[in-house]
């Protein structure tokens, strides 16, 4: 310690004694300071603690405040300690010690400090000796000093005493227990310690026990405390209710995450005795005898955070206790292994889930592995709430996992509980888990979505069915159970992929093979009902069934897919409507921008939005065009295809116009100066009108599309309605003898079919015009009304007679709807007008080119002007104009090319393509691209302006010729359709539109030809074909079908003549088209040149690929882009090859070889091109550089092969065009075919073409001989020819019947043309009407009263006689009234008057007898009393007055009728006067102008016509005046009668029987009235049938001559039809029938034809001499009788001589089933219900189909041979425009529009020698055309396949062409062979979804069938190949 204590003296050189003294002094000083510090600390610490304890006792301090006070005590103690002691300990300075020591020791005063200072080397001075002596002196003196005495203990005595006293007091207080001083001081001293507050009130925590413990998460923990109150505060018994005093309130405080809460505790009954486990009372607790206990409780909500709590009761506060939450044991997962019953054959299923619900089949055992979230013990499983408990088996390796097995038999629940190992908590609140045993119920079977409860189907249908099956266990036995009518149910198994609990089988159920066998089932017939359901049987043997649905079998035409084509059309129309809606929106937005104050600024700000909208509209247009191109190949006929094409072309044109509108402002100057601002404003000023025009054009497109769909929807509706009518006729026919039990079937079919029609209307109602929707409401009303009535009939069946009467009424109304009401007569006119407007609004390509040429010419002139301008302002203005014109030129050329390419693509998608026009369009595009490549610059040495004009003119010729060719094709197609008239609805609706379209479209086509500069010598004959006699005759026959209820009469004969006339007229057009084509060809490379250019580009691409720098990805992509130019050139060469092959003459063997060369070359190019594309694509897509390098090498090799193929192609066709030998190169092409494995396909393709060509090239006689030989051995052909003969005879009868009606119309027109006769007829008509009213007056005013009087007089017999007479008079009145209605002939009215007169005469005789019998009865009394007689007299008098009043009223009505007639006559007088005045003015005007030009012949004719009008008007006026006077006289007479009736007195009734007397009086008056009526009728009957005064007008006579000529021709055709039928019957060996037909033909010639010719001569004479008009009228009337007699006689002869089996007779149209028709429907068609052509005709590849084609070809050849003169005049009738050979040179490269492209025709040699079989037979011509079309589609498909790899090409073309190609391939099946095709090998359930299966009823048991083509497949006849082969063998 010395060393330690002297450390502060070490640096001093003190004397040791001095140093020791100083150290001792320092130690003593520190010891005394320490003792003082202890005393002070005790004093200060316990004093402050006492203060804190007092505060803690007096107040309930918060812990924080108490801690602050305690801390303050510690701080005060430390401060006092520091101030009074500790701070002095820090003084260790020797000088300070020396100074303190000197102050207490006088001996060393003043020396000790000096010694210390001198001892410090830092401050020492003076001599060393002096220092040493001083040190020694001080040391000696200090040795004698007592340090203890210097610092005695008394110095700190008072501090020690104070501290001791305080400590003693504390100890004494601590010894008093009641003060709890120790606890109080301890709480003040240790505020952080858990020391309860000292209080007299004792709080004991009863619950929870222990107070600090683990509790369950989420529980509410009850805290229960017992409070012991001192007796001094409990003078009364303890308070245990809510009225506790404030001093006795108990509060619980708790703290969660540092946040403190408190709440009052509620008192409850005190504990009677201590609970086990309660803590004992504290030692210092007050005796229990001095306290009273109260119990308080509160709940604490424990979540996941520990909760600290304490209880405050008065001044008592418990310690803080902690409740630490722990989760209760909880099951976290259940592993369930289900062991299913054995019968289910199900493997065990294991699943893991977080719940323990067990759901399984009844009888399943569930094996559970239960996992807890913590280690647990004593795990149990208890059933229900108090059920059996099962111990869970623990798993050895996992204290949290337990297992148990439960049987799943009955429903229940269970709970799992366990005790946590750590928390010792159980979980009585664990969830209850359910045990749900699922009974193994039968399978649930439902039909698929869309399967209705009632369906209609054809016996030939393949129903698309689907179902859904659900069961608890997999189902593996599913079948279709069906029952036909009341037969035994049958089963058809359904194939399922695998057993499953959920199955969705979908299958096609063939109604012909219902049991899923190859052998056909029994044929279903109309009105059969199939009830069917899907049945599933589970593994337990339980059976589940779907609801039963009913399939009503209707006729064979009612197939499920019959409306598929309409659905496709609706998709096109729907997208068109959407596109037009978007177009409206865009145009309206544009117009809105123009409506502002400053349109230019507004448009500039919104231009981008408009451009975006236009871009979206363009995208929609592309989708629409793709849709059109998808549907277009599936068109049923050329007219429908033309309509779809028209929609596409119109949309393309409008899109271009809309984009041009949007870019108008965009192209305006961006920063306009004054002039430019004016230009911009001018542009904007013109925009509103352009927008309005464009909007109107858009509306036309929309309206056309809607009307187009409405027309085709009408066809579907009429087809179904006609079939419905045909199906209900048996139950409406009294002679049908349909059993009453079957009536319900028929009615159900009727209801279902009406619903089908309603659904059809509803489906498309939003897409058709509103006017058409309104029109169809009539059908909706009819349908809804009769559906209700039919259901009522089923629910409450009437009697047989009532039911048949009801069905007769239904049939009558349905007949009216089918006849006229369903057909919208205005729709055809709307379509015609819209089509005309669409054609006029669409800009033609040549017009666009001319406009672009004009803009380019202006730009070129402006450029020259700009070069010569020096002024800057003028130069700027000129530059602006130059830019505008240049932009206009560029836009025009770009727009033209885009349009042409789209038009060409669209046209190639048609089912029948004008291949020459498609090729010419491609040429035109290539020519424009070629000459415009450098802009508007001269082409070679020729002015570009002249070049464009030549191209425009040339294409205008081609375009106009294409229009004619299209119409030529449509007319030929119409002729084929009219040959058999198999489609009732199409014949009534489509054919009239075809013929109308031909007539008005031909007018437009001729106008186009004339506009193209074609001379009138060429155009006039073409123009005449639209209004010539033949086409007019056909038009009259066809157009009348829309509104007339009559049988369909074929117009094929007239159309055949019209077609021949058109073919002949088109011939002179061919050289002009060839010349136009040569003009275009002069501006494009030849095929050889094109191939060489493509080869050069391929070589360049090859070199670039070989000489590439590297094989990087970037290089590959660059090479790919560069290779596309070569690919494009190769593709264009392929297109040229295809066009050349398409346009060769297939009847020429050399031309066919060239076509095959082109196909082979194209295939070789396509193969190399495809490989080059694939390899380049692979190179650009691979990531491996080595692989990329190899692919590039392969691509270079493929490009070399492509170059070689193109080069060889160029050489081959160059030699071919030069006429050199091509045998070597052709052999190379054939080798290439074999290498590409296409030789067989090409050989077959051209063999088929050769077979048909050989047949077409034969003479008609030669081919007919071969066909006649075939006829002898072909029974099916014999049947078909017999049917053709029967149809011809029936057509003849129908034609004669129609001719008779036409003759009657001539009579009417002649009579109408004479005003005198017309007025005479009107007077007679009015008189007949008056006579009918007089008869009614006799019936109702006289005889009715007589009948009532007879009844009163009890004369029953008399009453009956009067009633019978009234009925007879009613018939006579109705006959007179009917003859006066309408436009009856004079002869008919006189005959009606005569018949009525005879009836009245008979009635007069009967009346006299009635009068006599009544007179006799009047004398006999019927009442014994006079009073009764008087009463009877009064009643009779009343009847007498009623009769008088009625006669007076009828007379007044007649007076009014004649007054009206008088006014009408007066009106006609005025009208005639106005007409005369108008004609006089016209005459004067023409005379004045004639004086100026006396040689004007037209004026002279007009003057003559005006004079005739004046004469006619004067005659009309005179006749009308006569009628007026006549009416006036009749009116006066009626007035006289009225007055007489009013003044008539009542006669006395005084006889015994007054009533009988009245009857006698009424009979007498009636007799008198009938006498007057008879007299009037006699006068009318005596008028001549043909008035001698008849003077037919010249115009009417001329029209009659034309009509009479038509009738003569019609009767001649009827005779020709009979002769043709006779020849066919003779070929069939039916000589007797042939003889009868020949006799009938001779009779028609001698009577009908002769009388028609005589009538024609008489009418001609009447035209020249009006006085012969009566004779002409009589001749026409005689002809009518003669023709009608022949028609009736022929009909009877047909019924006797040509009896037909019901299964094979021609079905009649539904309107006039008893009238002979020209309908030639197939035996399958018993109604005109079938819409699809395939549904009527047998497939071409069936024996029946081939037999029909052969018979039809024989029939056509027979007609051609029998009428050589007519055929000679129509040479080339089956050719289309441009069928002749083209000129040599470049024209031959693209081919000519020969028969291969459009129709079959003979070659030149054939034309020179005479007509060929191909020209004579439309069927054979159509076969040639179809073969050419098929080959063209195949070629185009190859071209499109090549284009798909070229990004520059549009994919829409290839999509549409792919559809077309598929269709064409399907439509040409079975060309090559004549063998039958087995139906077992046919996929009839979906391989060709667009085709309808074709079967006939009599074929239903056959096993051979084939899918028919959608259009001309039936005309492609494999027998022609066989015939040609036989002919070759004979040679």
Automatic annotation (TrEMBL):
Compositionally biased intervals (Basic and acidic residues): 1096-1111, 1300-1320, 1439-1466, 1477-1487, 1497-1550, 1892-1905
Domain of life of the source: Bacteria
Biased composition (Polar residues): 1669-1683, 1835-1849
Chain spans, region Disordered: 270-289, 1094-1134, 1295-1320, 1370-1563, 1578-1599, 1639-1912
Composition bias type Low complexity, residue spans: 1114-1134, 1467-1476, 1552-1563, 1646-1661, 1698-1743, 1765-1780, 1805-1831, 1850-1868
TM spans (from-to): 33-55, 67-86, 159-179
Keywords from the UniProt entry: Membrane, Transmembrane, Transmembrane helix
Protein name per the record: Peptidase
Organism: Novipirellula rosea
């Amino acid at each position: 310690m010395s060393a330690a204590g002297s450390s502060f003296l070490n640096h001093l050189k003190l004397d040791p004694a001095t140093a020791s003294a100083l150290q001792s002094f320092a130690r003593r000083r520190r010891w005394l300071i320490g003792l003082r510090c202890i005393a002070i600390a005790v004093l200060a610490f316990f004093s402050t603690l006492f203060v804190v304890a007092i505060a803690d006792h007096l107040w309930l301090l918060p812990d924080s405040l108490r801690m602050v006070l305690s801390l303050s005590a510690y701080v005060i103690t430390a401060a006092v300690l520091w101030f009074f002691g500790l701070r002095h300990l820090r003084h260790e300075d020797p000088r300070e010690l020396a100074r303190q020591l000197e102050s207490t020791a006088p001996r060393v005063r003043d020396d000790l400090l000096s010694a210390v200072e001198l001892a410090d080397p830092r401050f020492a001075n003076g001599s060393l000796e002096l220092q040493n002596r001083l040190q020694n002196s001080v040391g000696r003196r200090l040795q004698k000093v007592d340090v203890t005495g210097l610092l005695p203990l008394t110095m700190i005595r008072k501090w020690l005493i104070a501290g001791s006293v305080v400590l003693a007091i504390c100890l004494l207080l601590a010894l008093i227990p009641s003060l709890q001083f120790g606890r109080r001081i301890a709480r003040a001293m240790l505020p952080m310690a858990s020391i309860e507050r000292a209080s007299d009130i004792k709080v004991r925590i009863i619950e929870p026990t222990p107070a600090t413990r683990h509790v369950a998460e989420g529980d509410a923990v009850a805290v229960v405390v017992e409070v012991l109150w001192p007796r001094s505060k409990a003078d009364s018994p303890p308070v245990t209710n809510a009225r506790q005093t404030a001093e006795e309130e108990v509060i619980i405080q708790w703290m969660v995450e540092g946040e403190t809460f408190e709440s009052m505790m509620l008192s409850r009954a005190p504990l009677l005795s201590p609970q086990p486990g309660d803590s004992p009372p504290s030692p210092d607790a007050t005796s229990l005898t001095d306290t009273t206990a109260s119990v308080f409780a509160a709940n604490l909500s424990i979540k996941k955070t520990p909760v600290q709590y304490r209880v405050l009761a008065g001044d008592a506060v418990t310690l803080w206790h902690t409740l630490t939450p722990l989760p209760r044991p909880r099951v976290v997962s259940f592993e369930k292994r289900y062991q299913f019953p054995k019968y289910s054959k199900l493997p065990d299923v294991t699943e893991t889930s977080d719940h323990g619900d067990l759901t399984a089949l009844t009888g399943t055992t569930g094996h559970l592995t239960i996992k807890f979230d913590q280690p647990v013990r004593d795990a149990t499983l208890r059933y229900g709430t108090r059920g059996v408990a099962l111990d869970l088996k623990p798993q050895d390796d996992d204290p949290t996992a337990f297992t148990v097995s439960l049987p799943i038999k009955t429903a229940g629940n269970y709970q799992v509980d366990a005790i946590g190992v750590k928390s010792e908590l159980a979980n009585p609140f664990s969830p209850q888990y359910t045990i749900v045993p699922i009974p193994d119920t039968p399978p649930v079977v439902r039909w698929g979505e869309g399967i209705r409860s009632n369906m209609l189907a054809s016996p030939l249908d393949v129903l698309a069915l689907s179902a859904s099956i659900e069961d608890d266990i997999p189902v593996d036995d599913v079948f279709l159970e069906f029952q036909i009518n009341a037969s035994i149910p049958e089963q058809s198994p359904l194939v399922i992929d695998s057993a499953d609990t959920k199955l969705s089988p979908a299958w096609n159920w063939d109604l012909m093979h219902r049991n899923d066998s190859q052998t056909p089932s029994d044929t279903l017939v109309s009105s059969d009902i199939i009830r069917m359901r899907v049945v599933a049987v589970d593994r337990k043997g339980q059976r589940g069934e779907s609801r039963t649905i009913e399939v009503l079998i209707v006729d064979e035409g009612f197939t499920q897919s019959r409306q598929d084509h309409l659905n496709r059309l609706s998709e096109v129309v729907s997208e068109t409507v959407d596109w037009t809606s978007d177009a409206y929106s865009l145009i309206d937005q544009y117009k809105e921008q123009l409506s502002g104050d400053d349109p230019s600024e507004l448009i500039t700000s919104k231009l981008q939005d408009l451009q975006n909208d236009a871009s979206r509209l363009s995208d929609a247009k592309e989708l629409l065009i793709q849709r059109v191109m998808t549907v277009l190949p599936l068109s049923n006929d050329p007219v429908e295809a033309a309509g779809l094409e028209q929609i596409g072309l119109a949309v393309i044109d409008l899109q271009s116009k809309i984009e041009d509108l949007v870019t108008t402002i965009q192209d305006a100057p961006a920063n306009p100066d004054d002039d430019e601002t004016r230009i911009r404003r001018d542009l904007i000023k013109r925009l509103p009108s352009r927008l309005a025009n464009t909007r109107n054009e858009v509306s036309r497109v929309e309206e056309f599309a809607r009307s187009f769909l409405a027309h085709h929807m009408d066809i579907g509706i009429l087809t179904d309605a006609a079939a419905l009518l045909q199906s209900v006729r048996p139950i409406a026919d009294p002679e049908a003898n349909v059993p009453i039990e079957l009536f319900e079937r028929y009615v159900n079919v009727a209801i279902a079919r009406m619903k089908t029609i309603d659904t059809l209307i509803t489906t498309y109602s939003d897409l058709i015009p509103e006017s058409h929707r309104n029109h169809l409401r009539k059908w909706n009303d009819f349908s809804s009304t009769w559906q209700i009535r039919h259901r009522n009939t089923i629910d409450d069946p009437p009697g047989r007679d009532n039911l048949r009467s009801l069905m007769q009424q239904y049939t009558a109304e349905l007949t009216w709807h089918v006849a006229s009401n369903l057909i919208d007569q205005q729709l055809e006119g709307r379509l015609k007008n819209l089509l005309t407007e669409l054609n006029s609004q669409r800009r033609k390509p040549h017009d666009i080119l001319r406009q672009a040429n004009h803009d380019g010419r202006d730009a070129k002139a402006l450029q020259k002007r700009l070069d010569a301008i020096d002024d800057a302002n003028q130069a700027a203005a000129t530059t602006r104009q130059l830019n505008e014109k240049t932009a206009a030129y560029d836009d025009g050329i770009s727009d033209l090319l885009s349009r042409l390419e789209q038009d060409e693509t669209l046209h190639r998608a048609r089912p029948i393509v004008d291949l020459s026009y498609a090729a010419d369009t491609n040429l035109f595009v290539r020519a424009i691209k070629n000459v415009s490549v450098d802009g508007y610059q001269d082409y070679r040495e020729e002015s570009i302006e002249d070049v464009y004009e030549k191209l425009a003119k040339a294409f205008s010729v081609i375009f106009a010729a294409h229009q004619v060719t299209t119409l030529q094709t449509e007319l030929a197609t119409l002729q084929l359709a009219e040959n058999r008239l198999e489609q009732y609805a199409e014949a009534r609706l489509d054919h009239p539109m075809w013929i109308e379209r031909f007539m008005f479209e031909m007018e437009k086509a001729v106008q186009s030809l004339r506009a193209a500069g074609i001379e009138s010598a060429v155009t006039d004959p073409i123009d005449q074909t639209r209004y010539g006699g033949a086409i007019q005759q056909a038009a009259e026959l066809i157009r009348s079908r829309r509104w007339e209820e009559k049988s369909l009469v074929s117009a094929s004969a007239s159309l055949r003549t019209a077609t021949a006339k058109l073919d002949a007229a088109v011939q002179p057009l061919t050289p002009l088209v060839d010349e136009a084509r040569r003009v275009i060809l002069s501006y494009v490379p030849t095929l050889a040149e094109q191939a060489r250019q493509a080869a050069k580009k391929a070589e360049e691409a090859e070199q670039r690929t070989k000489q590439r720098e590297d094989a990087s990805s970037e290089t590959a992509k660059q090479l790919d882009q560069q290779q596309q130019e070569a690919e494009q050139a190769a593709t264009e060469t392929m297109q040229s090859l295809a066009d050349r092959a398409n346009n060769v003459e297939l009847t020429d063997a050399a031309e066919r070889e060239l076509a095959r060369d082109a196909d082979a070359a194209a295939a070789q190019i396509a193969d190399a091109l495809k490989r080059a594309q694939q390899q380049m694509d692979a190179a650009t897509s691979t990531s491996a550089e080595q692989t990329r390098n190899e692919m590039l090498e392969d691509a270079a090799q493929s490009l070399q092969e492509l170059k070689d193929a193109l080069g060889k192609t160029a050489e081959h066709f160059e030699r071919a065009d030069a006429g050199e030998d091509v045998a070597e190169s052709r052999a190379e092409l054939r080798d290439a075919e074999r290498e590409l494995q296409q030789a067989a396909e090409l050989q077959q393709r051209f063999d088929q073409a050769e077979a048909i060509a050989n047949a077409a090239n034969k003479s008609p006689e030669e081919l007919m001989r071969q066909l006649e030989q075939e006829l002898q051995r072909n029974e099916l052909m014999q049947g078909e020819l017999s049917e053709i003969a029967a149809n011809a005879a029936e057509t003849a009868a129908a034609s004669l019947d129609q001719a008779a009606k036409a003759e009657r119309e001539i009579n009417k027109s002649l009579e109408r043309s004479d005003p005198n006769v017309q007025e005479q007829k009107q007077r007679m008509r009015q008189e007949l009407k008056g006579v009918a009213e007089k008869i009614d007056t006799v019936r109702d005013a006289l005889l009715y009263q007589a009948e009532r009087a007879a009844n009163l007089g009890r004369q029953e017999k008399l009453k009956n006689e009067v009633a019978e007479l009234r009925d007879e008079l009613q018939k006579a009145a109705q006959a007179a009234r009917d003859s006066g209605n309408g436009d009856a002939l004079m002869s008919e009215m006189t005959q009606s008057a005569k018949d009525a007169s005879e009836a009245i005469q008979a009635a007069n005789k009967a009346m006299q007898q009635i009068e006599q019998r009544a007179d006799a009865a009047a004398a006999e009394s019927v009442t014994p009393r006079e009073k009764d007689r008087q009463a009877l007299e009064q009643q009779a008098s009343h009847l007498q007055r009623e009769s008088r009043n009625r006669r007076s009223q009828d007379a007044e009505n007649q007076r009014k009728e004649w007054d009206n007639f008088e006014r009408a006559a007066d009106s006609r007088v005025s009208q005639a006067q106005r007409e005369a005045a108008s004609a006089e003015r016209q005459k004067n005007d023409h005379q004045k102008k004639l004086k100026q030009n006396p040689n004007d012949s037209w004026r002279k004719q007009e003057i003559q016509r005006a004079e005739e009008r004046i004469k006619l008007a004067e005659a009309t006026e005179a006749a009308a005046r006569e009628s007026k006077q006549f009416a006036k006289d009749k009116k006066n007479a009626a007035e006289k009668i009225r007055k007489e009736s009013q003044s008539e007195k009542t006669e006395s009734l005084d006889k015994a029987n007054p009533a009988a007397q009245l009857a006698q009086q009424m009979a007498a008056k009636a007799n008198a009235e009938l006498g007057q009526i008879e007299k009037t009728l006699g006068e009318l009957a005596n008028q001549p049938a043909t008035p001698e005064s008849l003077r037919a007008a010249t115009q009417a006579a001329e029209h009659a001559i034309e009509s009479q000529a038509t009738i003569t021709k019609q009767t001649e055709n009827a005779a020709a039809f009979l002769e043709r039928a006779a020849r066919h019957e003779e070929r069939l060996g039916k000589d007797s029938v042939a003889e009868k037909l020949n006799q009938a033909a001779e009779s028609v010639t001698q009577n009908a034809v002769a009388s028609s010719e005589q009538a024609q001569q008489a009418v001609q004479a009447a035209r020249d001499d009006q006085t012969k008009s009566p004779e002409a009228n009589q001749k026409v009337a005689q002809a009518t009788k003669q023709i009608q007699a022949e028609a009736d006689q022929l009909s009877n002869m047909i019924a006797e001589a040509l009896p037909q089996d019901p299964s094979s007779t021609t079905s009649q149209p539904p309107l006039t089933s008893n009238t002979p028709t020209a309908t030639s429907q197939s035996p399958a068609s018993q109604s005109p219900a079938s819409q699809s052509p395939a549904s009527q005709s047998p497939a071409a590849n069936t024996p029946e189909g081939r037999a029909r084609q052969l018979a039809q070809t024989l029939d056509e050849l027979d007609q051609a041979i029998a009428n050589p003169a007519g055929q000679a005049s129509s040479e080339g009738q089956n050719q289309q425009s441009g069928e002749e050979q083209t000129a040599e040179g470049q024209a031959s490269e693209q081919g000519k529009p020969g028969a291969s492209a459009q129709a079959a025709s003979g070659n030149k040699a054939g034309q020179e020698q005479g007509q060929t079989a191909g020209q004579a037979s439309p069927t054979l011509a159509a076969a040639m055309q179809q073969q050419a079309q098929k080959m063209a589609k195949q070629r185009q498909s190859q071209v499109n396949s090549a284009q798909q790899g070229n990004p520059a090409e549009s994919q829409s073309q290839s999509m549409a062409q792919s559809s077309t190609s598929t269709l064409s391939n399907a439509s040409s099946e079975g060309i090559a062979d004549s063998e039958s095709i087995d139906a077992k090998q046919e996929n009839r359930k979906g391989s060709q979804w667009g085709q309808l299966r074709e079967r006939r009823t009599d074929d239903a048991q056959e096993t051979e069938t084939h899918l028919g083509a959608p259009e001309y497949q039936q005309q492609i006849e494999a027998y022609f190949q066989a015939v040609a082969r036989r002919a070759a063998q004979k040679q």
